[in-house]
Amino acid sequence: MEQEFYQGLAQPVRIIAEKADPFTRRRLLDLAKRYDAKGGSRAATSIERPLPVPRTTPPSSIFSGPSEA
Fold first, then answer.
1. Is there a contact between 46 and 29 (Cβ–Cβ < 8 Å)?
2. Through-space distance between the first and last CA atoms of the chain, rounded to whole angstroms
């Protein structure tokens, strides 16, 4: 019964993590792993994916030119 309870908590946390920013995703997946450990689950039910490559700022040449005010 307790195992089902913690697995029930871990699954929604993983779903929320899929839509979160990288920092929050990492924290939520850690939380889900802790729920799995408390519930006695031996293997995680989710496969971790690598974090996306951080975005870079566009070159300043995009912003140079006549401005509209």
1. yes
2. 64
Q: Which two tokens mark 65?
A: 């030119």
pLDDT of residue 53: 73
Query: How confident is the model over 6-46, as pLDDT tens digits?
Result: 888 899 999 999 999 999 999 999 999 999 888 775 444 55
Q: What's the pLDDT score for residue 2?
A: 81
Write down the H helix ranges in the chain: 2-18, 22-39
**Placement of tokens 């995009």 in the chain:** 62
Decide if 32 contacts 46 (C-beta within 8 A): yes
Q: Taking a C-beta distance cutoff of 8 angstroms, is the pair 36, 10 a contact? A: yes
Using alpha carbons, select from 35, 60, 55, 61 the residue that is nearest to residue 46: 35
